[in-house]
Amino acid sequence: MSQQHSPFARIEGALEYIGLLLETIQTTKGEIQKEVVRAKSERAERRLEALHLVTYKLEQLGRHMDTSHRLLTDLRTWGFWGRTTATR
């Protein structure tokens, strides 16, 4: 696939993708919290432990995506996106 047809050929595409990932993470965290409440009411300890692990991993992923979003924004601001090695 050529770089011009890639969704990441422009920083706006990468930022949009990261934004969609962030939205999906937030939505999923909300769904998992509902499952946590249900697991507590059913006293399903093993499922509750698994859901806590999922919550932790989603938090980590969310922090990584936030960091990526900030870095991409900085790159766009500084004008580094899309430069070749020869132009630097």
Report on this structure.
The structure is a single chain. With 88 residues, the protein is mostly helical. The protein has one domain (9-78). It has two helices and no strands. α1 runs antiparallel to α2. 2% of the residues are buried. The mean pLDDT is 88.
Number of domains: 1
How many separate helices?
A: 2
**Number of DSSP-assigned strands:** 0
* Distance, first to last CA: 25 Å
Overall SS class: mainly alpha
Low-pLDDT regions: none
Helix content: over 70%
Map the helices and strands.
Blueprint: H1 11-41, H2 45-78
Helix pairs in contact: 1-2
Keywords summarizing the entry:
mainly alpha; 88 residues; 2 helices; elongated
Q: How would you summarize what this structure contains?
A:
By secondary structure, this protein is mainly alpha-helical. The chain is built from 2 helices and no strands. The protein is 74% helix and 0% strand.
